[in-house]
Design a protein that fits this description.
The complex is a heterodimer. By secondary structure, chain A is mostly helical. Chain A has one domain (25-131). Helices cover 74% and strands 0% of the residues of chain A. In chain A, α3 (26-56) runs antiparallel to α4 and α4 runs antiparallel to α5. The radius of gyration of chain A is 19 Å and the shape is elongated. Chain A starts with a helix and ends with a helix. Chain B is mostly helical. Chain B has one domain (17-100). Chain B is built from 4 helices and no strands. Chain B is elongated and about 60 Å long. Classes of the chains: A mainly alpha, B mainly alpha. Chains A and B meet through α3 and α4 of A and α2 and α4 of B.
Chain lengths: 132, 109
């Protein structure tokens, strides 16, 4: 499916038609809901970490924008994670209704990329700060 | 998948703890909002109070799913959407505070 098609499938107009198939076992729906909530908390944790870095840490000597370089991407990724969690909840619920295998989650990929990216940025900021 | 018959439906035979686990997950999420609100409170009081106010609402949403326990109704898409929108909103607020708020350097020292 194209990206625009994927996005359009998440809009309220289309999700309202999500009554096809059979109502899944409530336990499966509950599990899907808990997965969504767990990712939501992860998203909130990213936001709080980003804000803490920008506002509460002492500035890096010699790198005035260092804290923003670390914190702003974390906050933005928190928002991205929340939206992707919603998209996956919708897709999983659809798969459950039709008795199809669950689509593969891209969340682990996003999280791994985030952590790797943050590690690289942290290393650069610290090195710049140390060489000043 | 569910069967119409009460005897063969495992959920009816043994409701299990799925519902309780989900209720607890909602509570944890509400606490997360509260924790974030507490941190933001240190930086910007109004934004912090705004985020703190979301926590009881999320908790209430979780209780809503508790009230439906008798009918064993999982969350509707509206509730999932509400959480998504509030997290994105909170992220935008925090971004604004991070970019334009007066920083309190060394507050963790």
């Amino acid at each position: 499916m194209s990206w625009s098609g994927r996005l359009a499938a998440l809009l309220p107009g289309t999700t309202a038609a999500d009554k096809e198939g059979t109502e899944p076992d409530p336990r499966f729906s509950f599990a899907n809901e808990r997965t969504f909530l767990a990712w939501s908390r992860t998203a909130l944790a990213l936001v709080v970490a980003g804000l803490g870095i920008v506002q509460l840490l002492p500035p890096f000597p010699g790198v005035p924008i260092g804290r923003h370089l670390l914190g702003v991407p974390l906050i933005a990724l928190g928002a991205v994670l929340a939206v992707v969690a919603y998209a996956e909840w919708v897709h999983n619920q659809r798969a459950l209704r039709h008795g199809k295998p669950l689509p593969r989650s891209i969340m682990p990929w996003i999280l791994a990329a985030t952590i790797a990216g943050m590690a690289v940025i942290s290393a650069i900021v610290l090195l710049l700060s140390a060489t000043r | 998948m569910t069967s119409a018959s009460d005897d063969t439906d495992p959920e009816k035979r043994d409701p299990g703890l799925a519902h309780e686990r989900t209720s607890l997950a909602w509570t944890r999420t509400a606490i997360s909002f509260g924790a974030l609100g507490g941190v933001v409170l240190k930086v910007n009081v109004i934004t912090g109070l705004l985020i703190l106010a979301i926590a009881p609402l999320v908790w209430q949403l979780g209780r809503l799913s508790g009230a439906e326990a008798s009918g064993l109704e999982p969350a509707s898409i509206t509730r999932i959407r509400l959480i998504t929108v509030s997290i994105v909103g909170v992220a935008v607020l925090c971004l604004l505070v991070a970019l334009f708020g007066r920083s309190a350097p060394g507050a963790l020292r």
